[in-house]
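Query structure, 380 tokens:
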């Protein structure tokens, strides 16, 4: 899996191409390991395809979002769809006429995306409500909550806008962060009456009313001698369980934070690049080589690990009942037991990569592919 990098300030953007070329040269090495072969199995958790919907190629930083029984998603070409999550039937759509770079946020009333022209756009019932030019590029989907639209920008600042008219309400700048940033979704979620955001390697709790910090917890410490080695951005999705928010710092560590007290519970070294999932007992994540690990929620000790899916370009996992669901770059969704990682089922799509962690909507397991097809399966 390869990752795009960007500078947080426009005046240094000239160095970005050189960084990307260097990374591309490394990723094309002839010694790149082959994906683990798929093993035969007996499906002990059978499922059938319930429906599928063609969206079109998803936005580069596309993360479908569930609000009640509705699902919102955005295509790279600027189509925003809201579907019934049970049947896949269309509730409404909007054609923005401009490419989307990050999205989508949705609260059941207002959807929000960021365009490649760096505009924050709000849509309701298929109609654009307002557009606002952002001061910095954004690589994470907006968060729509409490009649506000929150944006985590590439410079690691967080801003709030009035969902009714787009008026900017406040901006909280990051401090002491590295100039190089990841072009992939970060951490931005609501926990009770606190807005929780990843600002560099720190998880910050903000007052959603005025943006003032309530607490700040470092999850990882800077290491290395160059900018790439010191890149520690928190990557989404975050796992929220029992008042805790568990997050991954890019290729360096995972940690769990008590979001009510703003206190670090534990942190452990970990070499992964996508987010986490959790239940009341464990935190689950994949390392960069495809190793799946389960850490104890209480103390971060490794409970089990599996090498079943090595080098398959895995998505972040999803907790779904007694199982985990993980997508791969070859278009499969693997369903494994939470207790030990045993393979329970393997679901096939169109052969293109699963672009983000699967979603659970009622009895439906959902996954979006790189070709822009949203699949839904139900247990038999």
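Result returned for the query:
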């Amino acid at each position: 899996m390869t990752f795009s990098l960007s500078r947080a300030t426009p005046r240094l953007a000239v160095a970005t191409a050189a960084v990307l070329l260097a990374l591309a040269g490394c990723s094309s090495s002839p010694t790149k390991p082959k994906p683990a072969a798929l093993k035969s199995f007996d499906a002990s958790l059978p499922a059938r395809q319930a429906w599928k919907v063609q969206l079109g190629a998803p936005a580069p930083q596309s993360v479908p979002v569930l609000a009640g029984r509705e699902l919102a998603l955005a295509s790279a070409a600027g189509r925003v769809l809201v579907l019934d999550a049970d049947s896949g039937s269309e509730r409404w759509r909007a054609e923005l006429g401009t490419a989307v770079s990050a999205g989508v946020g949705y609260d059941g009333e207002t959807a929000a995306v960021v365009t490649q022209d760096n505009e924050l756009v709000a849509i309701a019932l298929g109609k654009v409500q307002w557009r606002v030019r952002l001061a910095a590029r954004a690589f994470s989907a907006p968060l729509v909550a409490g009649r506000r639209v929150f944006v985590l920008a590439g410079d690691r600042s967080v801003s709030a806008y009035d969902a009714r008219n787009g008026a900017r309400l406040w901006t909280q700048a990051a401090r002491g962060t590295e100039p190089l940033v990841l072009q992939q979704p970060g951490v931005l979620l609501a926990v009770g009456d606190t807005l929780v955001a990843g600002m560099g390697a720190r998880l910050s709790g903000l007052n959603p009313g005025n943006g003032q910090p309530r607490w700040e917890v470092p999850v990882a410490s800077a290491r290395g001698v160059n900018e790439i080695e010191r890149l520690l951005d928190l990557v989404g999705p975050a796992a929220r369980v029992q008042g805790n928010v568990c997050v991954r710092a890019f290729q360096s560590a995972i940690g769990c934070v008590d979001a009510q007290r703003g206190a670090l519970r534990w942190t452990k070294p970990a070499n992964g690049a996508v987010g986490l999932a959790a239940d009341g007992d464990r935190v689950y994540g994949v390392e960069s080589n495809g190793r799946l690990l389960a850490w104890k929620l209480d103390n971060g000790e490794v409970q089990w690990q599996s090498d079943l899916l090595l080098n398959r370009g895995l998505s972040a996992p999803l907790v779904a009942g007694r199982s985990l669901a993980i997508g791969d770059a070859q278009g499969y969704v693997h369903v494994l037991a939470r207790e030990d990682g045993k393979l329970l089922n393997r679901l096939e799509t169109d052969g293109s990569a699963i672009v983000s962690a699967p979603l659970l909507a009622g009895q439906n397991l959902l996954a979006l592919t790189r070709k822009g097809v949203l699949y839904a399966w139900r247990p038999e």
